[in-house]
Automatic annotation (TrEMBL):
This is Lrp/AsnC family leucine-responsive transcriptional regulator. Residues 2-63 form the HTH asnC-type domain. One of its GO terms (cellular component) is cytosol. Keywords: DNA-binding, Transcription, Transcription regulation. InterPro entries: ArsR-like_HTH, AsnC-type_HTH_dom, Dimeric_a/b-barrel, Tscrpt_reg_AsnC-like, Tscrpt_reg_AsnC/Lrp_C, WH-like_DNA-bd_sf, WH_DNA-bd_sf. SMART domains: HTH_ASNC (SM00344). The keyword Lipid metabolism does not apply. Pfam families: AsnC_trans_reg, HTH_24. It comes from the Bacteria. GO terms for biological process: response to amino acid. GO terms for molecular function: sequence-specific DNA binding. It comes from Paenibacillus methanolicus. SUPFAM superfamilies: Dimeric alpha+beta barrel (SSF54909), Winged helix' DNA-binding domain (SSF46785). The keyword Transcription applies.
């Protein structure tokens, strides 16, 4: 079970995973060595699964942000899932969902033309409903 200090450590690492253990310790009222030991324990217990970066998609040319609800055509989802694996440059996240649809894709595209090409290929495997992001709040 996580205590309050572990939760604070996770909050701090979520804000900046490159923080030094000394600075992390200061922020959660531990020594750097104690903070490092806590982080190692969180990693060993699988609470922390890995570290990542947050990429500004607009700055790398992917200005179009879309959520695509997927309606598979058959109970065999493998062709769709295989296609999605080839589209890692556009598909940020793929969620298996219940309710309206089978999957929900979060995608980024540099242009309408690239989006259209993606949708044409996608339609070989599934039907879809697309929602475009206008503004992030």
């Amino acid at each position: 079970m996580l205590d309050q200090t572990d939760r604070r450590i996770l909050e701090e690492l979520a804000q900046n995973s490159r923080i030094t253990m000394k600075e992390l310790g200061e922020r959660v009222h531990l020594t750097g060595q104690a903070a490092a030991a806590r982080v190692a324990k969180l990693e060993d217990n699988g609470v922390i699964e890995g570290y990542t970066i947050k990429v500004n998609q607009a700055k790398i040319g992917c200005l179009m942000h879309a959520f695509i609800t997927i309606f598979t055509k058959t109970v065999q989802h493998e062709p769709f899932l295989s296609f999605i694996k080839t589209q890692e440059g556009h598909v940020l996240r793929n969620y298996k969902i219940s309710g309206d649809g089978c999957y929900l894709l979060e995608c980024r595209f540099p242009s309408n033309e690239v989006l259209d090409d993606f949708l044409v290929q996608l339609n070989e495997h599934a039907n879809y409903k697309i929602s475009m992001v206008i503004k992030k709040q």
